[in-house]
Design a protein that fits this description.
With 340 residues, this protein is of the alpha/beta class. 46% of the residues lie in helices and 15% in strands.
């Protein structure tokens, strides 16, 4: 029964609100920064840019355009442009700084985006002239935004070229990667891409193509205990995930393993930075995935009541939003490079 409830809770956790005001945990006091002066695309250590990126992603998640504008204007950004339709599908904002142009995507908040999140089967990217297969819901979001963003970026970069920085949290991170690939395919150079708390996107061929296109320009930040960065489960970690859902070697476990392997998700190949409370000991994606699902299995075995299970998912809901990443970064964590 605990395993069945876990499956239900895992699905519901995809609907966790990104705005912490919607849940009981209040955000920590956030230390204000000047996004323009604190970001440097020339730095030899990309981790130094994550405070600025986390703030940029946090602002993208705010409820109203007025709130977003207030922060962007305080940072002296110009040519502020909102893209997409908030609460009716994915959206982003684009701003011009003194030295850079930022395109920042919002994570899942609308019901349309939640439905996209759950569209796990992959589709071919051949029609987009990209390599591999990717999450069908994310590709729906890409297609919804593509015409508007491509036209505006092409116009701005031709009239006033600036290093183009893409970022986003959760679904926003996935979209920033997909758009980076599409813009590069259209002949628009991407300077750097930063993602925080982003889920898996596609199969091995997709990530190989991503690595070939953006190697040395794509950087991601993850909380290793955030469920979102481990889902959909990678094909290589199918057995570890299946053992969480059903007892090892049981018919249910075998079915789940087969389903996960059939979904055919792989792990990113680029540099990963982790939010951790101590020095991480894991050295690659597969071990990280296996360790994560084994820890979840241990947590489930220790649960004695429905209230304990609810608390497990409540903790997860509080862990994933960009505000939580900011709090962890500020108050209690190390930034540690994890090289594959």
């Amino acid at each position: 029964m605990k395993r069945l409830l876990f499956v239900l809770g895992l699905g519901l956790s995809l609907f966790a609100p990104h705005n912490l005001s919607a849940i009981s945990l209040a955000p920590c006091p956030l230390k204000p920064i000047d996004l323009q002066s604190s970001f440097s695309a020339e730095t030899q250590e990309p981790a130094q840019n994550f405070p600025a990126i986390l703030w940029a992603n946090y602002v993208a998640e705010m409820k109203t355009d007025e709130e977003i504008l207030r922060h962007l204007k305080a940072w002296n950004f110009e040519s502020i442009r909102f893209l997409g339709l908030k609460n009716q599908g994915s959206s982003a904002y684009m701003v011009d700084g003194d030295r850079h142009r930022f395109l920042v995507f919002r994570g899942s908040t609308s019901l349309i985006e939640k439905a996209w999140d759950l569209s796990l089967p992959q589709v071919s990217l051949e029609s987009l002239r990209l390599k591999g297969n990717a999450h069908s819901g994310m590709i729906s979001a890409l297609r919804a935004l593509s015409p508007e963003i491509l036209n505006i970026i092409k116009r701005r970069q031709s009239m006033d070229p600036k290093p183009l920085i893409l970022s986003g949290h959760s679904l926003g991170g996935a979209l920033s990667l997909l758009f980076a690939l599409k813009l590069e395919e259209e002949g628009i150079a991407i300077h750097q891409v930063y993602t925080t708390g982003a889920p898996r996107i596609g199969n091995q061929e997709f990530y190989q193509g991503l690595d070939q296109t953006l190697r040395g320009r794509y950087f991601r930040l993850e909380d290793r205990n955030d469920y979102t960065v481990h889902i959909p489960p990678s094909k290589a970690a199918a057995a570890s995930f299946a053992a969480v859902i059903g007892k090892p070697e049981s018919p249910l476990s075998q079915i789940v393993r087969s389903l996960v392997e059939g979904l055919d998700y792989d792990s990113p190949l680029n540099e990963r930075y982790e939010l951790t409370e101590s020095q991480p000991t894991l050295s690659n994606e597969l071990l990280s995935d296996q360790n994560f699902w084994q820890s979840v299995q241990g947590e489930l075995s220790a649960i004695d009541s429905l209230s304990d299970l609810i608390q497990l998912f409540k903790n997860q809901a509080e862990r994933h939003p960009p505000q939580s990443y900011l709090c962890q970064y500020q108050e209690k964590t190390l930034m540690t490079r994890d090289d594959r």
